[in-house]
Amino acid sequence: MSDDPFVSVVIIGAGGTGLAAALAVADAGLDVIVIERDPVPAGSTAMSTGLIPAAGTPEQRAAGIADDPERFLGDIIAKTNGATDLAVARRLVEESAETIAWLRDRHRVPLALVDGFLYPGHSAMRMYGTPNRSGAELMAGLTQAAEAAGVPVLTNATVTDLNIHGDKIAGVTLVRPDGAEERVACAALILACSGFGGAPETVARWIPEMADAVFYGHTGNKGDAVRWGQALGAELADMAAYQGHGGLAVGYSIPILWPLIMEGGIQINGDGKRFSNEAAGYSEQAAYVNAQPGRYAFSIFDERLHRLMLKFDDYREAFRAGAILQADSVEALALHCRLPLDALQETLADVSEMVLGDKSDPFGRNFSGKPILQPPFRAAKVTGALFHTQGGLVVDENARVVRKDGSLITNLFAGGGAARGISGPGASGYLAGNGLLTATSLGKIAGRSAATYVASLTTGPP
Less packed terminus of the chain by CB within 10 Å, N or C? Predict the structure, then answer.
């Protein structure tokens, strides 16, 4: 028997996935430790809007919203053109409502149904968020829940190696905050250390179209889980998949969120012309924006949409920082954005005709039901960014890591960005909220599965 200190479940990464997994392990009455390289828990979750989709919830029913897991699954299948991991996607949508109730009611994470608009690809209003719709606020709630549950989070500590005994994980080697190296033994290990967006050479290998894009994600996403998994013979899938965003404010690194597009805003390039169906999805829009001259575009909207966007913490930050321009007329808008007036006037006139139904959009967008954009106008100069990767270790519906030959690595689990997502092989399959759906629900599943595995052992620590 090893003389290394023993913890039933070790979790690498204290983002949304890791803390959700830790709460699930703690619920089962087992000892657990979360190891985090950063000074405070954050991860990709802290950089998100903190919105988690869930289907078939009591709040939806109370609001008269017709939704259920099958409808949610249908939206995922449609967005990915059927290329999603169906078994995992089905498990996640079936767990989604319980995840929200579990986080909110048992662990006091402040989540409520967000109404008022649909996100790209969703056929029902099913987003849940914190009061200020902020990923940092969500992480604060998860961190407080972990503290209340007595979950130890070792920060400023970096796992350098996984220790293997036979065909199982025996523990990890880590470097503590004081620089000392330590080995910790465990019965089960959960990889929650996200994807590889912070490793430029890996992005260039797997996602060449985003190799030169701005990375707006957690810099700790170095692909450790992928590297460790490959060494163990784990299967990888959908490595070209990612969540992009076609609205990162140039010079401010603040995302200008997509409700302003879904509710009638547009994007134009430096020539004053639209270049895509902006409402198809903010992820795939990143590559379209980066294909424009200068790799930028302008998101154009009006006062009505400005007031709507003030509900979001990110937008308020962008507004306070000066990333949002205001123009009282088309002429002033052209001047402020240095756009050709004739082209801008023609574009806005065309969009108005599309709203009225007098013209169809050559890019296939449906503008019906949205008001015509009116002065005073608002604009933000944006670029396309890489937020996080969606490919990774193949897991089954219980978050167990799968080898290339289809067998399971018995006591290794993964969730969130460490695991293959449900977005299919590229950017266009990303459905809003997929990242936090897999972070919270797959993290919860990983924690419960690891706890079940540990409870099944009769021989004690390995």
Answer: N
Task: Report helix, strand or coil for 436.
Answer: helix
CB distance 53 to 126 below 8 Å: yes
Alpha helices in 39-188 (DSSP H): 58-62, 69-79, 86-101, 135-148
Nearest to 430 by CA among 55, 80, 44: 80
Percentage of residues in the chain with pLDDT exceeding 70?
Answer: 98
Contact 302, 379 (CB under 8 A): no
Residue 437, CA distances (Å) to 159, 215, 228, 431, 434 in order: 26, 21, 24, 10, 5
Judge if the upstream peptide bond of residue 53 is cis by omega within 30 degrees of 0. Answer: no
Comparing CA positions, the residue from 65, 45, 46 lying closest to residue 55 is: 65
Output the six-digit token pair for 4.
Answer: 């290394």
CB atoms within 10 A of CB 270: 17
Residue 418 · residue 191 · CB < 8 Å: yes
pLDDT in tens, 90-143: 999 999 999 999 999 999 999 999 987 788 899 999 999 999 889 999 999 999
> For residue 388, what pLDDT is reported?
92
d(CA 275, CA 367): 15
Domains defined along the chain, listed by start: 6-199+390-456 (3.50.50.60), 243-386 (3.90.700.10)
Residue 292 sits at the vertex; the CA angle it makes with 289 and 293, to the nearest 5 degrees, is 140
3-state secondary structure 1-63: CCCCCEEEEEEECCCHHHHHHHHHHHHCCCCEEEECCCCCCCCHHHHCCCCEECCCCHHHHHC
pLDDT digits (tens, 9 = 90+) for 187-213: 999 999 989 999 999 999 999 999 999
